[in-house]
Input
Amino acid sequence: MQNTRRDTLKTIGALTAGALAAACTRVSKGEAVEPSPPSSPRPADPSSRATPPKGPRMPALFLAHGAPPLLEDAQWMRELAAWGNALPRPKAILSISAHWDARPLRIGATRPLPLIYDFYGFPEHFYRLRYPAPGAPEVAARVRELARAADLPFVDDPERGLDHGTYIPLMPMFPTADIPVLQISLPGLDPRTLFDLGRALAPLRDEGVLIIGSGFLTHNMRAFSRETPAWAAEFDQWCAEVLGGHDVDALLAYREKAPGVRIALPTVEHFVPVLVAAGAADAHATRAGISFPVTGFAFGSFTKRSVQYA
Output
């Protein structure tokens, strides 16, 4: 399976190489800024409590992160850029990516570190991408508080930087890379656990933090095609109905209820970040406040459907 995934990604990388240099220049505006060198982390003060003031509630998002080829898809780039421009400016971003499943909950670096190039077989330019966003130690402190309050075990992982599920979509959405970013892990793949994690993190929305779950609602690495197969369209439509109606029971039971789930999701790590976003929105979710800023398909079977919870 791993060899199949690498061979498929290598093929995509070869096909997209032609426009890469120009795309990277547009996204990064020509900046080749290295992240700040690592500094020695200051020990946490257990008596301190980070309590940012409340303000307008930030939305919670799930977005299809697209992997490196997203940067060469002009329409997708425009859609993400427009979405980012339409959002209120966050004080910080908290990302939960499909590419970090680690138990218990792990809290990533709170200072800029080199990006994690967790993909294979792409042109060299992709391994020179930069996204030198500031760290978010205050958000990490709040995540610890909220996790303790919800009896969620966690550990710090101060050497873990941002993976491509975080920085690839942030490049078109927030291209100046001046908003602090923190990434935390998926603490496993259990639907209820992840939904409850989102609910525990929900207070951050009132503190200016944009919570983003990043993945793909369909993710079959063996199903690249020119046309969208029926099973992918049916699964996408089911997601639109369940997410749009905030049907929590159906969402949590997606493995039993969604049509074509076994072919749409041979593995589920790319789907489950939507559960965190839905949990973060749960207390205030209404049908009128749920939208799909990006839809359509990439690579045939991969739905780009992304969700905003007001």
